[in-house]
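Now for a chain:

_____
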Amino acid sequence: MVRLVSDGALTASSVVANSTMNRERGLNGVNSYARELGFDPAAWLREYGGAAPGWLDLCSGEGRALAEAARVLPAGAELTGVDLVGPLAPWPVPSSVPSPGPRLRLVTAALADWAPERSYQLITCVHGLHYLGDQLGVIARAASWLTPDGRFAAHFDPESVRRPDGSSAARPVVAALRAAGFEYRARRHLLLLDGGRPVGLPFEYAGADPSAGPNWTGQPAVGSYYRCASPES
């Protein structure tokens, strides 16, 4: 039988406190957000974000992509990164950014205990959900943090979501996400939502397994366990 742990215990596991996650990932290039997401977040914000765009990056690592975006976004932009470990060394605002430039803030916090004070035009989570316990809870909360014209984009592995008996819950979970308005692109393992909204998913979080083993990336990941909250699920 799988021994499930709470989110509090999960944050102390070596799998979750992963010092290499997103540490060197930049905005563009070979190892970049643009490559992983299929679009450049800064370019998307310049086109759709208005005069004061906001980008919230969940599981942001060092925040390198945010710091690079600060060079090209308008002064009213607000860039926020949230990471359990936080930056190992602070990223200075690049000297090429005019003063006053975009506000760049890196927050060290567990996502289970954190919520923003504003809404954002763009919310991303690049290969970060793999290390969270209540993935569906974070996804639903992030949807409520979006502006009405905003976009949520995150990597998601449906096979990491399981029932209490250990069987896969991938099919009902993906079906419920699509019914709530999300798009799931299986080839990229990418979950997208355009337009902020309240989201209710018919699943109750039961706990996490930090010893679930590697996912499709080849890296150790967390298994998230849920009970169905309604007979239809």
The chain has a mean pLDDT of 89. The domain at 7-89+98-228 is CATH 3.40.50.150 (Rossmann fold). The helical segments are 7-10, 33-37, 41-48, 64-69, 135-145, 170-179. Strands lie at 54-58, 78-83, 103-108, 120-125, 146-155, 161-162, 183-185, 190-194, 203-214, 220-228.
